[in-house]
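Supplementary Methods S3. Input chains for the assembly prediction are listed below.
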Amino acid sequence: MDKPKIELKLPIIANMELVAINTAEVVAKHMDLSDEKAAEISMALIEACINAFEHSQAQNNVFIHFILEDDSLVIKVIDQGIGFDKSKVQIPKIENKLGTDERKRGWGLQLIQELMDTVEFESTKEGTTVTMTKKKES
Amino acid sequence: MNQFNVNIQVENDLVILITEGYLNHEGGEMISGICYEHISNGKTRFLLDMAQTKVVNSIGVSILIEIIEKLQEVDGKLGYYNLAPIVDKTFKIMGLTKYSSVYATKEEALADF
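Predicted structure tokens for the full assembly:
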């Protein structure tokens, strides 16, 4: 039997990431995840949505799939933007940003990786899929 | 959809900003605008009460880094209290806690400011 799956289709409109985290909160509660894990999922999801909205230059919708596994929650954030090369994304350090001309932004991937148990990126010129997993127990 | 508000309390040389709502780009710009105006009037110590800001994003928080940078130029200080655990964790991951201070309560913050 297929795992339960919830699919969202978000237009690229300001603050639509809040719609995504409302769904994430309901799913986390259904899965009996702790408040801490639920908050980490929401924060990572916000960042993944913002990346999809802002950095992909996608003109269409962003799709979010919540897949309820027995022992984990898998979230896929899918955009149809221009893609990116993760190897060229530098790990941000606040020391390098203070007192320099370096832009203060660019923390999204770092936060996603710190807050989720596993993160995978599949990116081509036709779009990007970020697959994030949070285990029920860890 | 998102309404971000800031209430301001000025106590002697200290400026307390009580935030409410989602700290995104617009929220960060609102905070920085208030801080920069007070910095230009000679204020150098700022506290954020974030009890009513349960959700943030990295763009909004990165604007706090800009404020820290500005305060370094005037030997100023930035602190926060009443943070939700995930906001506290986000600040730690982004390194804000190395250059600004997190307090559990207003009383704790005032004792150090």
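The helical segments of chain B are 25-40, 58-73, 85-94, 106-112. The mean pLDDT of chain B is 96.
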